Amino acid sequence: MQDLVIEWKEDGTHLYEQIYQYIRDEIRRGKLLCQEKLPSTRSLAEYLQVSRSTVELAYDQLVAEGYLEAVPHKGYFVARVEELYQMETAPDAGITSREQAGSFSRADAGGDCLFLSGAAHASEAALDDSSAAVPVQIDFSPNAIDMRNFPFDLWRKVNRNVLNLNNRDLFLPGDPMGDLSLRRTISRYLHASRGVTCRPEQIVVGAGNDYLLMLLRYVFEETITAAFENPTYPRAWKIFQLFAGEVVTVSSDASGICIEELEKSGAQVVYVMPSHQYPTGRMMPIGRRTELLNWAAREKERYIIEDDYDSEFRYRGKPVPSLQASDAAGKVIYMGTFSKSIAPAIRVGYMVLPEALLERYRQKCACFSCTVSRVDQAVLEQFLDSGAFERHLNRMRKSYSRKHEALLDGLKPFLGQFDLSGENAGLHLLLTDRVGRGEKELVDAARRQGVKVYGLSSALVGAAVPEAVCRATVLIGFGGLTEDEIRDGLERLAAAWLIEKRL
Fold it and tell me: How crowded is residue 436: how many other Cβ atoms within 10 Å of its Cβ?
């Protein structure tokens, strides 16, 4: 510890952030070596004369990002993080971003990953006649958000302000890529919140990410092979099937997509959600992120599509940078949306194109008009610039945090029969059966109690079923429910799945 010298900053940066940044940078520089043991939280706190909780926050962040490994009863060790040269030249995103990142734990089933049992492609709606007759009282949808806290009055006010300006230009055709003023605002927001470094001219605005993915069809060559993890976001998979020459699935493990298999697939483009993979909820650690960036850098026409669909909500640890923030080679196409953070009907998505693809986009997509009205663009711009969006996010984080705690507390009696994962971020978590039941059995039993849960099989894509398929897994979402509805739903699930209450 004699070599650990931190010069405390007086710029308002929290002490735990400074400890995190120091250790992270020492690992990147190779001064802290793989498997090197770090001081205990207690001894480091005493040495630095800070609280133990401050050191614990820093260590938790480093573990979440994959720089450290926490070994029970032994302590913290530097993880195997190789070939970080791309990170060293990338902009430092710090940990001031607002990403929600979920951790993913492998199921304790002889080393198999947690997925499902039974029919691999059983639909979430595949219910028997008896269960279908029962009306749904509680819907644990993983995609629902809380509209009870939507700032209707403020949104109306912003709309009036925009229209009262008598700006006739808003009713004329605008820039096909989106109004430049909005793109400037989005650029500032992404840099501050996600560590994304880009010029406003690199941003394309469109009505949802589905539309933006379709635009990429004209940017890429028609004969490309696109790779996906399995399971994944099914709509993205279907869109790629429409325009890609070939779409393939690549295996994943606890750290994310397997790079060796990705290399063998012959793919030029890979679609990933490194900050919060849907549906597994895992976060891609720094080592795997570096491997992925290096894969893309080895060939001129290789690109990574980073879908950062819900980066605002995280419940454990601090935010981690986007993958694009570590991209020194210009290989990441960054995509985001305001649908989760504001409302699904606010169909405003955006993508950040690497400089190498920007001119190609202008040549091939100049004929496409922006699919978001200029009035809506102006309203969103003012909502962001005024600070209203940040205030709204803070309210939503508090609301979702309370629901998240209510859900975790109510699930404690379930943990004798289920493994829990994906609980550190996002608006859903996963329950994996430990007693041999099938996915359809769990879904049907819940439906007979008036509760709808979602099988992981609904997110499986392609013809091949992952070899790691094993135990039944269901998704439990909480964003669209009240705390009372969550508790009611869990009571019904306990009855459906024969969960004994703890005294």
Answer: 9
Taking residues 466-490, report their average pLDDT: 86
Q: How far apart are CA 261 and CA 255, in angstroms?
A: 14
Look at residue 416 and tell me if it is in a domain. Answer: no
How many structural domains comprise the chain? Answer: 2
**pTM, to two decimals:** 0.78
Which of the listed residues 54, 81, 108 is the one where a domain comes to its end?
A: 81
Residues 333 and 224 in one domain: yes
Residue positions counted in the chain: 503
Considering the domain boundaries, does residue 59 fall inside one?
yes
Among 368, 386, 404, the domain boundary falls at 386
Write a three-state SS string for 102-161: CCCCCCCCCCCCCCCCCCCCCCCCCCCHHHHCCCCCEECCCCCCCCCCCCHHHHHHHHHH
- Say if 120 falls within a structural domain: no
**45 lies in which domain range?**
15-81
Dig out the tokens for 200 from the structure: 């406003």
Inside any domain, residue 192: yes
pLDDT per residue over 116-127, tens digit each? 333 333 333 433
C-alpha distance from residue 51 to each of 43, 44, 48, 55, 338 (Å) = 11, 9, 9, 7, 37
Which residues on neighbouring strands pair with residue 473, listed in sequence order? Answer: 432
Q: What sign does the CA torsion over 474, 478, 480, 486 have?
A: positive
Q: What SS3 class is residue 98?
A: coil
Q: What is the mean pLDDT of residues 138-155?
A: 88
What are the Cα distances from residue 146, in Å, to 96, 193, 357?
25, 22, 37
Residues 49 and 197 in one domain: no
pLDDT tens track for 84-136: 544 444 444 433 332 333 322 323 333 333 333 333 333 334 334 444 557 89
